[in-house]
Please model this.
Amino acid sequence: IVNRLWQHHFGRGLVATPSDFGTQGERPSNPQLLDYLANALIQNNWQLKPIHRLIMNSAAYQQSSANQPIAAKLDPDNKLVWKQNRRRLEAEAIRDSMLYVSGLLDPKMFGPGTLDENMRRRSIYFFVKRSKLIPTMMLFDAPNALGSLPNRASTTVAPQALMIMNNPQVRAWSEAFANKMATISGNQLTKEIQNAYLYALGRQPDALELADDQKFVNQQTELYRKSNKPEPERIAFADLCQAIFGLNEFIYTN
Model:
């Protein structure tokens, strides 16, 4: 159990074969730590939250993912956790993050699942029906529930980017995100861009990003104005919000 929790947070378990602790599996990279976590789980009456908290408060988890040439030469697979691994979020977390940032996420807990893709609750509430899987979830490697899966795949394919660019739900979330930024920023473009980066990426844009984004929004606004589109400024800023959703930085832990 604790090995799978460690794998969830680091992308690789202390035992790299999470479904095989036998003689054919890999040896643990740190058996003392594995025993320590297992004992902590028992002492906490088999509750998982204390173990999550213990792992996430550790110095190992809070490391940067920056490369260190000497350590990389000695331990290229990062088995000893000398840095944090860059990992893409799971399909459910990607969708939930877009809903949360746009202000549309319904935090209601419990209750039945659904197959409605327009559902605004967390993706864990999607009902699993093998003959009707959620396309956006499958696109980002959500498991199909046909069998046990020790590790999720993390593929990078063109349809993922095309979904962010063309999916009507993503567009609706982008427009909601744009409206939210306009409300909290007083319709001031510079502040809107800065707040969009802060909400979506957890940082401020640098000077070059800010200048490029202002130029992009102004160009899009002019195009929409020439096409007699209503509220050209809002549509243009929604384009930028949609581009932010498509950034690697938005869907990868760093």
Remarks:
- Residues 207-226 form the longest helix (20 residues).
- The chain is about 50% helix and 0% strand.
- The CA atoms of residues 16 and 26 lie 6 Å apart.
- The mean pLDDT is 91.
